[in-house]
Amino acid sequence: MSLKDKIDLKKLPAHIAIIMDGNGRWAKNQGKIRVFGHQHAIISVRESIESAAELGVGFITLYAFSTENWNRPKFEVTALMELLVKTIRKETKTLMKNNIRMQAIGNLAQLPSTCSHELQECIEITKLNTGTTLILALSYSSKWDIVNATNRIIADIDSGKLQRAEVNETALNSRLSTAAFPPPDLMIRTSGEHRISNFLLWELAYAEFYFTDVLWPDFRKENLYEAIIDYQNRERRFGKTSEQIN
Fold first, then answer.
1. Which residues are catalytic?
2. Cβ atoms within 10 A of the Cβ of 59, count?
3. For 12-141+184-233, which CATH class?
4. How far apart are CA 29 and CA 184, in angstroms?
5. What are the domain boundaries of the chain?
6. CA-CA distance, 45 to 32, in Å (whole number)?
């Protein structure tokens, strides 16, 4: 029996979030510069997205570029932005073929104009697709998002749109950039690191975490299947006891 055949399609995570880590180390292992790893990671992105769509996973969020990543060497940042433009342009047809809808979260105003244009064009072209929703976290920081949501709450209170007594989890959640999507059920991080690096801090409150030593450029559909199988073997209690769940 293949790994794919072991997956219970009735117990799929509705939303998978992935921290794609290890590109630089992978390139170093090959005796190449970091950008080489980013370039070869495109295969991993494609396989993960297509596999999730084939299984019927509703949402998949990829941590593509964090706010902190702007502090990397200028050459690497420029190369990453150029690669992002080329990849989005090239992969739009693949998204359409697989009925995948593109969305994005983060401080998108910080993106170079060419990158922003390609991204918005892809979002527009794929907006009527009804299969898996691919969410790119670009120039994204969860702390930034929470602060923005808090400021929106303050503004709404000042304008009379919201009463102080109405400030609760729902009020904050509805003002986050992720408001239109369900919280992730499964968070995957590659390369052996065991942290979430300012990624979906609010949304991952009850997600199952899966860490693998596989470097992102080596991540393939079988690795995704392994993560999903591991997820399906866990008992999700959401604060309740096993007896209450069963």
1. 21, 69
2. 23
3. alpha beta
4. 32
5. 12-141+184-233
6. 20
